[in-house]
Amino acid sequence: MQQQIWIETNLGPVRVWKITPSLCNKRIVIFMGVGEFCEKYQQLISFFSSEGAEIVIFDWPGMGQSGNFAKSAFTSHVSSFDKMLLASCEVIEKIGWANKRFFVLGHSMGGHFALRLQGLKKFKISGIIALSPMLLPKVGLSFFVYLLAKCVSLLGFSKYTIPKGGRNTLLETRKFYADNLLSRNRKAVENIISVINNDPSLARSGVSFGWLSAAFSSCFKTTIQPAFHRAIQVPVIIMIGSDEKLVSQKEIIKSLGHIKFVQLISFNQAKHELYNELPYVTHQLCICINEFINIFSKKE
After folding, report:
1. What CA–CA distance (Å, rounded) separates 76 from 88?
2. Which domain holds residue 16?
3. What local confidence, expressed as pLDDT, does residue 172 receive?
4. CB atoms within 10 A of CB 285
5. What is the predicted pLDDT for the residue at 149?
6. φ, ψ for residue 204, nearest 5 deg
7. What is the C-alpha to C-alpha distance for residues 13 and 26, in angstroms, rounded to an integer?
């Protein structure tokens, strides 16, 4: 059974999907990446639902159908990652999982928040599945870029799109290009384009100065800090593509030396959106995640 409900958070109403199979033996919360929407994860949802997982997934505040905070309707904006993290806590609590065990699956920005959620020690998290996690955006001179984004935001341009960040094949051209940074799977990308064509309000292209400032601030304080990783006490599986160009692989590799229970799996030539990659990648991805969940569900 799939329900769509709206939950009020500190950042406004959030669209939530709750998928409950007839036979449920595990729970998964899915944290999406920046600018994404629930429909993009339908294939992943279907697989884990068939495996007996109850799933909660939601559009982040200001993204998908959960409103928009930017000057442009097509830009992802948020001024504080702390407020985003609080919103995720409110969703989990109001959905009725505050005292239940669950796994957190996070992609990109969602992987960042999955790790930060565990750091709160607030919920009974069984394990973390981090797909191409954003421990730090892959940007040259990252601290300089952070300072620039911070200054521009303080000057009153926080909600404005970063120049050249507004170009996106899904929004502007609605075509698949082999050299895109997200996926090699033409069919998967064209399916997403079809969803956006049916509901253009879902489309996001680029991020705001405020989002970039908030992202770097959160990363600098948490996900690139050894002490933060050493404090993670739940099992973690990290999955990345060897052709990853949006998040820092260097920081991911560095984290492996500090997280107590961690496994890294790399997919040769795969790009950023592993869950939307070529079929052999998504097949292996689902098998690996399912094995991880089954192993650490039994140990509880």
Report:
1. 17
2. 2-298
3. 57
4. 21
5. 94
6. -130, 140
7. 27
Q: Which two tokens stand for residue 162?
A: 């970063």
Q: Which of 28, 46, 110 is nearest to 282 (CA)?
A: 46
Which residue is it, tokens 């601290």? 143
pLDDT score of 249: 96
Please tell me the predicted confidence (pLDDT) of residue 166. Answer: 43
Q: Please name the residue ranges forming H helices in the chain.
A: 42-50, 81-94, 109-119, 142-152, 186-198, 209-218, 226-230, 249-255, 279-298
Q: Are 212 and 76 in contact (CB under 8 A)?
A: no
Q: Are 185 and 241 in contact (CB under 8 A)?
A: no
Q: Helix, strand or coil for residue 89?
A: helix
Domain CATH code at residue 184? 3.40.50.1820
Q: Are 211 and 217 in contact (CB under 8 A)?
A: no
Consecutive 10-residue averages of pLDDT for the chain (300 residues): 94 97 92 96 95 96 94 92 98 97 98 97 97 95 93 95 62 72 93 90 90 97 97 97 96 96 97 97 97 83
Q: What is the 3-state secondary structure (H, E, C) of 85-104?
A: HHHHHHHHHHCCCCCCEEEE
Domain count, the chain: 1
Q: pTM to 2 decimals?
A: 0.94
Q: Which two tokens stand for residue 169?
A: 């094949």
